[in-house]
Write a structure and sequence with these properties.
Structural class: mainly alpha
Shape: elongated
CATH architecture of one domain: Orthogonal Bundle
Number of helices: 5
């Protein structure tokens, strides 16, 4: 029963993390914090065209996901990147890396075989192997069929 509860908690953590990363504004905030320096909320909010309360909602989502920590000194609230949750997401995604690597390797082998077959089946000269003449092939005139319906009566 403990394993099931741990797994459920882990899945909830990943859900929260991926939901936080799903928004471009929040990813931009994380990029701004990636230098490692603490930045004031007003510095972080500057490049984003939104109200400060709207921006604070984005910060709250990142904080709930464990990606950002906030500290307050006097009247200045600063933010810092906490990348530990991204490691958990990376571990989760790495399980699928083997699957996609195998699929892409299989596709590469198939495309290589197709290229080899086309090279192997190509005629050596520009002419078709069954045609030995250099002159144009005469076209055959089509025989006309029955007369079709007309609009006049």
């Amino acid at each position: 029963m403990v394993k099931y509860a741990d797994r459920e908690a882990s899945e909830q953590t990943l859900d929260t993390l991926f939901a936080a990363l799903a928004d471009s504004t929040r990813r931009g905030i994380l990029e701004s914090l990636a230098s490692g320096a603490d930045l004031a909320v007003t510095e972080l909010a500057g490049p984003h065209d939104m109200s400060l309360p709207g921006f604070m909602k984005h910060l709250r989502v990142l904080e709930d996901a464990g990606l950002v920590t906030r500290t307050k000194e006097g009247r200045v609230v600063s933010c810092n990147l906490s990348a530990r949750p991204m490691k958990d997401a990376s571990v989760w995604m790495s399980r699928y890396e083997k699957f996609w690597t195998e699929k892409l390797d299989s596709l590469a082998r198939y495309l290589y075989q197709q290229e080899e077959l086309q090279t192997w089946n190509k005629p050596k000269s520009g002419k078709s192997p069954s045609s030995h003449s250099t002159g144009p092939t005469p076209s055959h005139r089509k025989k006309s069929g029955r007369r079709g319906p007309t609009g006049k009566r």
